[in-house]
């Protein structure tokens, strides 16, 4: 199913149709907030909750989130991960493009995090002042132009500051189909401009922007639709598969590292 390099995922989405992309994201956010479409991504199922917990643990550990650490979460959505990140005790600000989903996110986390409406590509709505110790996110980078995001948002990461992200893996058959087959794309509510990442491309994008990448790898075979009675067995199988060449078609890619210029705070 892997058909070779995908320039869009390697370099980020083009900026030529940026306004249409922003409008599509805002429209999708309004639909999610109004029609409870968040279930499409599977975070609320028993297996989905385990997947979400696993991602949150990765972000917290890889980015060194703890009390006293100032963190920016980008692409916060309705706060599925925001609520998990604040449990680390970090000082969290969450950025979301859609006002509708940002409102849901703020209601979800209350005063434990500050939710901002803004644009990671243009810098609109981004906080000013003290740099962040960490920047994190789940399933956000495949929505944006990476070059613009590095320029506008990642400049807020201090030297030595850490980053951690989880993204869909283009080498996974389901993810590939969601990005290339119109019928699947509609059923899965994937917007026209969304892409996904292959491991080498995502690593190259960060390293090309001057960051040190400590880990960039495919992971996860637990599907959100897995019946509860089968979760434990699938997780045992997953542990084996992630240690074989088959891990290359796992569902997601995770990446973490830091901005050079000072020792990593880990």
Structure summary:
The protein is an alpha/beta fold and 266 residues long. The chain has ten helices and seven strands. The N and C termini lie far apart (38 Å).
Task: Name its key features.
Rossmann fold; globular; 37% helix; alpha/beta; 266 residues
Strand content: 15-25%
Question: Structural class, from secondary structure content?
Answer: alpha/beta
Largest sheet data = 7 strands, mixed
The top-level CATH class is Alpha Beta
Coarse shape:
globular
> Are there runs of 5+ residues with pLDDT below 50, and where?
1-11
- Give a count of the beta strands, DSSP E runs of length 2 or more: 7
Query: If strands are numbered along the chain, what order do they take across the biggest sheet?
Result: 3-2-1-4-5-7-6
What name goes with the CATH superfamily? Vaccinia Virus protein VP39
Can you give a write-up of this model?
There is one protein chain. With 266 residues, the chain is an alpha/beta fold. The protein has a single domain (7-258), classed as Vaccinia Virus protein VP39 (Rossmann fold), CATH 3.40.50.150. Helix content is 37%, strand content 18%. It has a seven-stranded mixed beta sheet with strand order 3-2-1-4-5-7-6, sandwiched between helices. Helix 2 (18-35) packs across helix 5. The longest helix is centred in the first third of the chain and has 18 residues, at 18-35. It is globular. The chain starts with 6 loop residues before the first helix and ends in an 8-residue tail after the last strand. 45% of the residues are buried.
């Amino acid at each position: 199913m892997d058909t070779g390099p995908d320039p869009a995922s390697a370099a980020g989405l083009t900026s030529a149709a940026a306004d249409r992309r922003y409008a599509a994201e805002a429209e999708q956010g309004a639909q999610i907030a109004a029609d409870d479409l968040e279930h499409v991504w599977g975070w609320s199922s028993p297996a989905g909750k385990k997947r979400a917990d696993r991602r949150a643990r990765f972000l917290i550990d890889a980015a060194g989130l703890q009390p006293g650490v100032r963190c920016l979460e980008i692409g916060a959505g309705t706060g599925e991960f925001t609520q998990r990140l604040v449990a680390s005790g970090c000082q969290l600000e969450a950025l979301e493009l859609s006002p509708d989903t940002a409102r849901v996110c703020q209601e979800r986390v209350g005063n434990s995090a500050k939710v901002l409406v803004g644009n990671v590509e243009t810098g609109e709505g981004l906080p000013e002042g003290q740099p962040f110790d960490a920047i994190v996110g789940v399933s956000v980078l495949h929505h944006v132009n990476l070059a613009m995001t590095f320029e506008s948002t990642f400049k807020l990461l201090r030297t030595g500051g850490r980053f951690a992200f989880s993204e869909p893996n283009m080498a996974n058959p389901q993810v590939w189909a969601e990005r290339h087959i119109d019928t699947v794309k509609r059923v899965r509510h994937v917007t026209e401009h969304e892409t996904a990442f292959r491991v080498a491309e995502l690593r190259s994008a960060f390293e090309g922007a001057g960051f040190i990448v400590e880990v960039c790898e495919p992971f996860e075979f637990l599907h959100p639709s897995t019946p509860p009675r089968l979760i434990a067995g699938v997780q045992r199988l997953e542990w084996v598969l992630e240690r074989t060449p088959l891990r290359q078609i796992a569902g997601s890619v995770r990446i973490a590292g830091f901005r050079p210029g000072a020792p990593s705070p880990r």
